[in-house]
Design a protein that fits this description.
It is built from 8 helices and no strands. The chain is mostly helical. The protein has one domain. The chain is globular and about 45 Å long. The termini are far apart.
Length: 236
């Protein structure tokens, strides 16, 4: 979920500053550590999976509490209706259940969508604001979980995974659009682009950038499936 600025007016976030670059270095290091540990000790990953799942689920109530105490909690950021929020919940389910269908959603949505939040963040505040840590814990946690469930736990995307992930994305778009229409919010940035620079800036004005995102999503999903593609052998 996007978070609002703290009441004490901390410094505004600056992309690719030292704190941001530190996050971009830490995320792949954590991925490498968790994946390596899962592969070396496959029989002892249960606690690791549960711990990561609990972290992903805990971020939402922490954000609510922080927003309530600091006075920036509104309908615009109180509901877990952004794509990263939904992906975080899917990651927790995939980690706890080990179900393939959940893992593939996390892989496609997390890498194609949430990774963009790490590279072009919409974080309102810079280090050391609590909102800085909250934003990158959520987005970094989703990306870490995506690589971990696929490369560490071996829950690799299967044939038709692209279309399943894309189909569920349409469900998300429909639900988020309904919430936005009913409450006047902007979840998923489906009604307006974020104020910070992002991929949406090169996709045209509303509503065309929403339609363009559909094509971008299919292209990215296809690229993300390529490492797992296996050409079917002709039957003899």
């Amino acid at each position: 979920m996007p978070v609002a600025s703290e009441s004490a007016v901390p410094p505004a976030f600056q992309a690719y500053s030292l704190p941001h670059l530190t996050v971009l270095v830490l995320v792949p290091l954590i991925i490498a550590f968790l994946v390596r540990r899962a592969r070396r000790h496959p029989g002892r990953v249960r606690r690791q999976n549960v711990a990561l799942a609990v972290c992903m689920l805990a971020l939402y109530p922490i954000a609510l509490l922080l927003g309530w105490r600091q006075g920036w909690l509104t309908l615009e950021n109180a509901l877990p209706c952004h794509l990263c929020d939904v992906t975080a919940a899917c990651a927790a389910v995939a980690l706890i259940t080990g179900r393939q269908r959940w893992a593939e959603i996390v892989w496609f949505w997390g890498i194609a969508g949430t990774l963009n939040g790490l590279l072009t963040p919409t974080a309102p505040d810079d280090f050391p604001a609590a909102t800085f840590f909250l934003f990158f814990a959520l987005h970094g946690g989703v990306v870490i979980s995506a690589f971990y469930v696929v490369l560490g736990l071996g829950l690799k995307p299967q044939p038709e995974a692209i279309w399943r992930a894309f189909g569920w994305a349409q469900v998300y778009l429909a639900v988020a659009s309904l919430v936005n229409f009913t409450m006047g919010t902007n979840y998923g940035y489906l009604r307006a682009k974020p104020p910070q620079a992002s991929l949406l800036d090169v996709l045209g004005p509303w509503p065309w950038y929403v339609l363009a995102l559909e094509g971008v999503a299919l292209i990215l999903f296809s690229l993300l499936y390529l490492p797992f593609f296996r050409r079917r052998r002709p039957s003899s």
